Each structure stands twice: as C-alpha cells, then as structure tokens.
Amino acid sequence: MKKKLAIYLSAFFMLFAGISCSMSDGGTTVVLSPYAMISSFSIGDIKSSYPDFTSTGEDTTVVRTISTSAYPFTINQLDGEIFNVDSLPFSTDVSKVVMTLTVNGSVAMYIDSLGTYEYFSTSDSIDFTTPRLFRVYAADGSHHKDYTVTVNVHKVEPELMAWSKYQSPVGVIPAGIVEFKNSVYLFGTAADGSLALAVSPLDSEPVWESLQLNGLPATADVANVQQFAGSLFVVAEGDVYVSDDAANWTAVLQGVGAIAFAGASDSDGKIWLSTEQGLMCSNDGVNFVVVEDTPDGFPMYGVSTMSYPLLHNANITRYMVIGYANPEMEGDVVVWSHLSSENGWVRYDNEKDYSCPSLKGLRVLRYDSKFYAFGGAGIAAGMPVMAFGSFYISKDNGIVWKACEDFYQRLPKELLGDNAQFAAFADSNNYIWIVTDGVNGGVWKGIINRLGFEK
Questions:
Q1: Most buried among 31, 95, 99, 138, by the most CB within 10 A?
Q2: Looking at residues 406-423, what average pLDDT do you find?
Q3: pLDDT at residue 437 greater than cutoff 60
Q4: Element (H, E) at 389
Q5: pLDDT, tens digit, 9 for 90 and up, residues 238-261
Q6: How many CB atoms sit inside 10 A of residue 117's CB?
Q7: What CA dihedral angle connects 273, 275, 278 and 282, to 10 degrees?
Q8: Rounded Cα distance, 264 and 306, in Å
Q9: Count of alpha carbons within 13 Å of 320, Cβ hemisphere only?
Q10: Order of strands across the sheet with 132-137?
C-alpha cells in the first residue's frame, strides 16, 4: 500500500531516533546509517506471448512464462541507472512487474500523476513500460540518491526474418546477382534474349540503373558470376571472361572447355574452375592449371558456391559447391567440399530424407553461419514441394538439410507457388536479396532482425 512519503519518513526517522536515545540512556549509542543505495535489483517471472503454428498450420499465439533470472540487471551507481543489458523477449508484458531489491535506507517511487515520491511495497506490481524514478533516503536523513530503472524489452522479434519489397529493374529477366564494389549488379536477359545488366546501390533501397554489357557472349552463364581479386569472372562458351566494372568484359582463358566455377576465396587467394580437362585452379585469375581430374559426380551445372574460414581455424578456408552433375539439372543435388589445408575435393553422401532438395533454379546461400536452400517447385525428402514453400537449412556445412518449419524464418508469402525465374544472394549487410520475374515480381530484401541490431 502506498503512503504519503512525508508521513512515512517522519515515522521512519522518529522510530530510529527513539531507539537511539533509549539505547544511549543505557550506555550504548546507535549510529544511524548515512548510506542511501540500491545494491541489488531483480524482477519476478513474467507472462509473455509469442507466435506459433497450430496443428493445421494456422498462425496462433502461445503464452509462456519468461524466467527473468536469465536477464540480470546492471546497477550503475555512478550515474544512478538500473537496467537489463539483455532485453526481454519481444511482446513481454512489463505493465505489471513485481520487483525485488536490496537497499540501504528507505526507497520511494516517483508518481507522475502526483508529482511527488511515494513509499511503496515490494509486493505491489509496477508498470515498467516506461523508465521509473526511484529515490533512496539514508536512514540518518542526511541525504538521498536517485535511480532510473529501465526494463528493456525487444522492440521486434530477434529471430523473425522481416521482408520488404521494392521495384525490380525494367527489362531484366533475373539470372544472377552479386555484390561488387559497394553496389549490387543484377545479370539477366532482355525480352529478345540478349544479356541485360542493372546496378543498384548496396546500402539503400534498391534503385536500378541499366548498363550496357560489352564483350560478353549472349550464352554466358551469368548465374555463376564469381568475385575474385577485385574483379568479376564468368564462363561463356567454354572460355573465362573477366571484368573490373561488371559492364566491360575480356576473355582471359580460352580453349579449355570451361564449364563452371567451383568457388573463389580472396583470403585463400584461389579461384577454382571445372573444365573438360579437369579441375583447374588459379592464384591470379589469369593463369589456370589443372590440379586434378574432375571427380565422378562433381557438380558443374546450376551450382551455388561458397567459401569461408573455419570457425576453429581462420587460416583454413572451406570451399563448398552444390548443384547437379548433369547438364539437364535433374536428379539428386550433390554437395562437395574442399579444405585449403588438404588435397582434393570430397563428396558428402547425404541420407535421402536429409539431402539438399532438388528445386527449379535452386539457390544455396551461406547466411547466419548456415546454408539456406530455396527455389521453385521440386523434390525435398522424396516428396513434391511447392515453389518457395520453405527454406531448407543445413547447420553442419551441407550434410543434413531440414525444412524450416518455424514461424520466424519464412520466405515471403507472396512468392509461394511462383515458379518464375529468379536470382538471389546474401549481401555483406546480412540481407537476403531475391529478385523475381513472376506474378509477384520485384526485389525482396529480408533479414533476421537480430542480424541488423547495432552491436
């Protein structure tokens, strides 16, 4: 129960004054504490709601209890601030919170409607939807100390993948997309079958400008563009072409029967190429040498490539190439890997129920330290699936793949069932870009909210 602060404090100080006098008469003096300080602060468990699916796949809301012991509070005595560094989960209701504290002195809370501080009981619930002011009075009445208590709650669901849609470039049927020199380049074809190119800034909403492509054959595999050593590389008609600006191209390797790039890494200083002569490698993007015969079943068609340092040893680079071993791009998707510290490439033999799905236009991106596979209609775990029905995620570098069935990380609903041609990549700002040419054509940018939080 709240009481008028003046009445409470008067009684508080008179009580201790009486004790002090009576004990002094008996020869003992009690000195009241001059300290005014909150030395510990916590709040009780809170009910929270979060989105989920029903057994029939409908959206629903589930209520759960948040154990607040996992969200400790920090007390900044110098500035008089109390707050939880790790925010409570999104949608947590902090309008009725019971708090527990350890205090030297007597504590009161500021009541906005009264314009003054009021004593309160720690059994009372408090509305922490906005910061609250507390004042601690020393037992000897000499001074007081003020605190601002803030209970932080996430403003958005950290694990939710949020999508925004923008206009796509006019006249480009998307095939490949890449981040290059702080811009985004979209490669594709025009209505007449010729190659087309558009560019957009990376760090803002997509605004596209058409560019003229020069020196690149119309049959170039622009879905397999590689970035290496400050240049872009692409395979066309068995040759390798290079560009420093994405628009003007020059042949640097001819007559080798080049089929597709298997990966590139600036940190390792190598770019890999599958050819009719075997697997070739180059340290400069110009001089390629055959390293080994192309292994049986090696993916060379409709491939996605990734390279990244190992978590336990940043000096070792892992190359991944995922795609089809036949030009028809049918049947099983195969996953191959190469470590820079070892010789040769190795194939991952996935169990059928956990293999990478075989989807139209399959794209595999490395995102949030995992692999995300998606695409048009196809086969996953032996069953037919709709276009853009789900992400298929691998958390172990491509060995086990599972459909993402939770509420949070989903593809745009508007793309469900759309088998149109598309291009996709993950940029350095943690956004996934999907450019489509179907009924819901456009540029979709998605991010897991926590990957966009300021550090």
A1: 99
A2: 90
A3: yes
A4: none
A5: 999 999 999 999 999 999 999 999
A6: 22
A7: -30
A8: 8
A9: 22
A10: 3-4, 116-119, 106-111, 132-137, 144-150, 81-84, 73-76
